[in-house]
Each structure stands twice: as structure tokens, then as C-alpha cells.
Amino acid sequence: MTEISVTGTETPLDAATGVFVEHRELLFGVVYNMLGSVADTEDVLQETWLSWAARGGAPLAGVDNPRAYLVRVAVNHALRRRAVISRRRETYVGPWLPEPLVGADTGTAEDPALRSESVSLAMLVVLESLTPLERAVFVLGEVFGYPHAEIAEIIDRSPAAVRQLAHRAREHVHARRPRYEAHPRVRREATERFVRAALGGDIAELMEVLAPDVTAWTDAGGKRRRASLRPVHGRDKVTRLLTAGRGGPNHPVWRYRRVNGDDAAVLFDGDAPYAVLVLDLTPEGDRVRGIYVVANPDKLAHLPAARGDRWGAGQE
Do 262 and 109 contact (CB within 8 A), yes or no? Predict the structure, then answer.
């Protein structure tokens, strides 16, 4: 991607590459929160780089604010990519969940994507119900703090139109997901308690942990045995689902991981990732109201291999 100068001096493309790398973390965060897919985000960043590098071999020429320029290019590539994702979703088998961002272990943020503005997996699910423009405005304004005037320039709309989009997006998001944030310690304890009860088949404990209106989503893309093909609603049905003894990995190992900024758990088959488990808690933090399981192997391909503290069944 970088042109090397034989004279040892920096070429215009070298300088442009440095600028792009400097802003890559920001671009990844914006695009990922718009798309919910690591693979599509990487494709959009590649397209953004090509657009940036195609400016006559001198991408910096005539660009007063490279950061603003790159964000605008990336956002518009991402908006076009949404159409591709929507067509793909039409033939997707079973529930669709965002592709998780998984760190090496809880308490660390060595992955640059996890150091950027993180949106929880549960919030990303809510954002899926917005229009592409509403989602772009919400992400830029609510997550990254862009003022309406700058967003208007990025998406080529009037400030009045952006204000209207932002209002609709906020109303929709807050209606489906009131503002609250469980303490990390509470989330970790709830995750540990849930996994312990589920692995042990402790029906009484599960009934205590789960909220009456809990919903479980399992995204396997039709590639895992006996995965549920639709969301399961209600404490009784979810408990039966969790204790039904469905097929799973041959050598299960559970580990703590930070997923989209929240404490969560990852199930490995030996060292290979098998599923990501994220819980959404009630505002009080004492019950589980949402269970998100991402088990599609295509969405786990970027996960790091198993390492760190083991816990639960399969511990060696």
C-alpha cells in the first residue's frame, strides 16, 4: 500500500499513508458502528484508502482537514455498503447479530478497535432498526460527538435535515433501550452466575437469573448443529433451550473476554473459538433480559485463540 522512495526522501504517497494510518482507528470505529461487521468494515477502510490514494498521487494536496475528509469518504462508502449487507441479510439463515469485537481478555484493551468508542452488542442490535442515514447521524453525533453542522457536510444534507434525522434516531433508540449502564463488576458477576447455572443445568438458578421477559438470540448462520432459527422469548422457553442438551463443542473451554467494551464470555472448542456470549441486563442489573450468542464461524474468524483464565466446564 505504501510506495517506497529509492532516494530515502518521503514521497507524497508516504505522507498520505501516514495520515491514513493516524486516523485508521477513528475510521474503524465510525464504520463498524454503522455496519456491525468487522469484515465489511475492513473492506470499507480499503475502499477509503483507495479513494484517498487515487488523488493524483498526492492525496494531501488541496485537503485542509484530512481527518474530516477521510471520515466523509469512509461514511459514504459505508452507506453504500449497507445496501450490500441488506441484500445479504435477505437470505441469511436464522437470527442475525452484529459481528462481535473481542479483546484478548477482560481488563485489557490491546486491540485498537476496542480502545475506540465502543457500542455494546445490545445497542448495535437496536441500531439495526434505524435507516442507514439515521444510523450514520446517531453514530457520528451520539457516539463520536460530531455537531450537526459537521455531520451535514459529511453526509451532504442540510443541518435541518440532520437535526430531524438525529431526533428520530434518538427517540427510536431511547424507546427501545433506556439510558443505563450496568457496573462492570455487576456485569461480570451476572455473566459468571449465568454460565455456571447454564452449564450445570441448574433450572432453579436459571429461573432466578433470567428476567420473565428474557429473549435469547442465537446467530449461527445455519452453520451450527441444532441452533435455534428464531429468537426465543420468555423465561420458561429460554430455560428449556439452555438445558436441552443441544450439540456443542467436543472440548468446551469458557473464558472471560471483553466484547464490544463489556465483560462477556467466549466458548472455545479447545483453542478454536466456537461462540460468543453477551448478556443484556435489566436496569437494576440483577436479571438477564437479553442473551446474544454469536456462533457463526464466519463471524468468529478474527477472534484470538484461547488463552487467559479458564472458567466453567471444560477447565483443564
Answer: no
State mean pLDDT over 205-222: 94
**Residue 234 CB: number of other CB atoms within 10 A?**
15
Confidence of residue 256 (pLDDT cuts 50, 70, 90): confident
| Residue of higher predicted confidence among 270 and 79 | 79
Sign of the CA dihedral running 38, 43, 44, 49: positive
Round to whole Å and give the CA distance between 30 and 23. 11
Cell of 274: 466456537
Helix orientation angle between 66-89 and 148-155, rounded to the nearest 10 degrees: 60
Q: What is the pLDDT of residue 12?
A: 74
Per-residue pLDDT band at 113 (split at 50, 70, 90): very low
- The residues that bridge with 166 in the sheet, in sequence order, are none
pTM: 0.87
**C-alpha pair distances (Å), 219 with each of 118, 173, 278:** 21, 22, 12
Three-state DSSP at 240 gives helix
Q: Is residue 93 a contact partner of residue 229, using CB atoms and an 8 Å limit?
A: yes
